[in-house]
Please model this.
Amino acid sequence: MRVSDKLLLMPIDVELYSLSAGGIPEPRADWTEGALQHMNEAIRARQEQARVAVVSITAEQADEFAELVALQAAVAQSIALHHFGGPMWELPTKAGQLNWSFGNAMQALRDKTGADFALFFWVRDSYASQERVAAIVAVAILSLGHVALGGGVQVGYASLVDLRNGDVVWFNKLQRGFGDLREAGPAKESIEALMSGYPAVK
Model:
């Protein structure tokens, strides 16, 4: 990116879940709302240091581009699998390169905002309920530690797309068993982790 470029910051696609005793994810709207606020605050702090003009659209305005947002999320999951999933998932045609493009599908976003690039975030986070924690402890005791139940996991993707040609020019994946988007400090750390390796402005 260059100083003269304009960056479109898309609304964060985030959902938080509570894991039941049986491991079933149950959406928590209150947690999601708090996480969105914390993450937006962390991004605004970074935005103040940006060397490019940054524009944004509201979640309501983004609804106009719901199909594009869904397409981007699907491509992001494919990138995460084929670039971060290990050798067995690598695509020979990509030769290890981040060679993914939306073609002219993203032109509508450029026409709407005048931006040259768009930054997308997709995040899912889950937390073990008290019942789940009890089940994890019980199974560990009964199996003498030979069997383990999983707790929550944090998964996120960040994608930078060139709206002029649809190319994905940068991508990062976050997947780990710790972090808490329900709190401001950890949410800021998650954003910093997702933005690790973000291309410098020239």
Observations:
- The chain has a mean pLDDT of 82.
- Residues 32 and 191 are 15 Å apart (CA to CA).
- Helices lie at 29-47, 59-62, 66-84, 107-113, 130-142, 184-194.
